[in-house]
Amino acid sequence: MMGENMKKIIIKKANDIKGTVKINGSKNAAIPILCTSILTKGRIIFSNIPKITDIKIIIKILRYLNCKVRWRFNKLIVDSSKIEYKSLVIEECEKLRGSYYFIPVFLYLFDKCDILLPGGCSIGSRPIDAHIEAFEALGFKCMLKDNHLWIRREKAINEASITMSKKSVGASINAILASLKCRYVILDELVLEPEALDVIAFLKEIGFDLDALSHKVVFRGFKGRVDEVVKYKIIPDRIEAMTYIVMGLLCGDVKIKGANADHFKYPLELLLKAKYNIRFKRNYIRAIKSRGNCFDIKTETYPLFPTDMQPLFGVLMAYGKGSSVIEEDIFENRMQIYKDLNSLGFNVNLIGNKAYIIGSLINEPINHEAKDLRHCAALLILLIKNGGLLSNIDLIKRGYNSIFYNIRNLGAKFKIK
Ligand code: EPU
After folding, report:
1. From start to end of 38-124, where are the E strands?
2. According to the model, what pLDDT value does residue 235 have?
3. Atom 4 (ligand 1): residue with closest C-alpha?
4. Could you write out the DSSP letters of every residue in 194-251?
5. DSSP state at residue 73
6. Which end of the chain has fewer CB atoms at under 10 Å, N or C?
7. CA 179 to centroid of ligand 1, rounded, Å
8. Taking the CB of residue 41, how many other CB atoms lie within 10 A of it?
9. Spacing, Cα 365 to ligand 1 middle (Å)
10. Which atom of ligand 1 approaches the CA of 307 most closely?
11. Which residues, other chains included, contact 334 with Cβ-Cβ below 8 Å and sequence gap of 6+?
């Protein structure tokens, strides 16, 4: 059943799209970096912060903590000189996963944190045991009841060597942040995606002394206070970039400006090997409608295939030549797109966490409801290609800045109701 209040996007007659889009700053880098910005207790001028729902929630939390946060054109200025300790048992924290980056920042500033975390979400159960293990190894006592986490410093730890027990992006960033008060820490088996490396670059910018070496971070304390005002630019969003690439490959001809291809080399190489028409120019990547070969995909941690791109590639493979097996090994509930493709008549079988696809050329209009951010992006591409109706589209605003403006500029003709 479709909810009555959900916003819908409708395309009566699909047409090819063509034009240029500019990639925004990375959501998954901007969220932890904004949380971390209060460590300086000073003023930071950020550029490339995406104007998306998740960031608006982080800004709301920062203001609740007595920080001054304002947009000046496309720059976001955060002044945390008057930051105060407050309980984070508030509904905003429950709204997004990334609010847990406030925990180690609070531990650094106040030695304690009370926070309400999101429970499971539509893409999977999402436990935080690996975060807690790292906090405990660094001297904090944690109590988690339902989704309320209570955490206090129990002892001062100056030196530590910690090997992460799980491959987790969030736990890796949180372990790094929770080490900031120590004199010397080695963290091993981290997942250091480009977004985590951006957090490390920001920490260096504000005066911490640490180095990232493949899966490891060596932290050597604080070098001393930095200047009052720090300027920092967030890296481009590789998932947003790939969304427009897949859009171009299926729906027309899209030039993508401002992306950093080094951040998503592996999936790009898969596409090139499968003979999709992608051209690399000095300041843009161009994706042109083409039917490449199918290939198998297994989601993994960086630098291998990212789970956030899996639903997009599912749609691409459904139109490819040959057959493909897509295996999701990170989030158990990220397979909804294959049920949708099946309902549209595609030759797609979903068995557990694997989708078996035989590529075909089906141009049925869609009539579907988005269940999570990346599922919404994948369905939006199908909608642009074939027309129809997609509901619950507000979800896309969690991760894509100005996406409706962009697709209108590319020539898509749609109505939003
Ligand atoms: N896991 C545990 N215990 C933990 C932490 C994680 O079992 O303590 C498991 C998770 O359940 C999952 C796997 O480890 O099966 C990986 O989860 P991870 O912690 O790496 O994910 P995350 O940090 O919660 C971030 C992004 C996600 C992205 C994943 C994987 C943010 C705010 N979120 O989540 O982004 O899918 O890494 O790359 O950075 C999205 O942008 O759509 C999105 C969901």
Report:
1. 43-47, 68-72, 75-79, 112-116
2. 98
3. 128
4. HHHHHHHHHHHHTTEEEEEETTEEEEEEE-----SEEEEEPPB-HHHHHHHHHHHHHH
5. T
6. N
7. 20
8. 14
9. 32
10. 36
11. 123, 124, 307, 310, 311, 328, 372, 374, 375
Mean pLDDT by 10 residues, the chain (417 residues): 76 97 98 95 94 97 98 95 95 94 96 88 81 97 93 94 96 96 93 96 92 84 69 97 98 98 98 98 97 98 97 98 97 95 97 97 96 97 98 96 98 97
Is the C-alpha dihedral spanning 289, 294, 299, 303 positive or negative? Answer: negative
For residue 328, which of 348, 349, 309, 315 has the smallest C-alpha distance?
Answer: 309
How far apart (Å, rounded) are the C-alpha atoms in residues 209 and 221? 6
Residue nearest atom 24 in ligand 1 by C-alpha distance = 170
Question: Tokens at residue 66, please?
Answer: 């007595």
Q: What is the pLDDT of residue 3?
A: 55
DSSP 363-392: -PPEEEE--SHHHHHHHHHHHHHH-EEEE-
Pairing of strands 323-327, 297-298: parallel
CB 23 within 8 A of CB 259: yes
Question: Quick one: which atom of ligand 1 is closest to the CA of 373?
Answer: 42
Model's pTM, two decimal places?
0.96
Residue 90 in contact with residue 113, Cβ under 8 Å? no
| Atom of ligand 1 at shortest range from CA of 302 | 38
- Tell me, what's the pLDDT at 394? 96
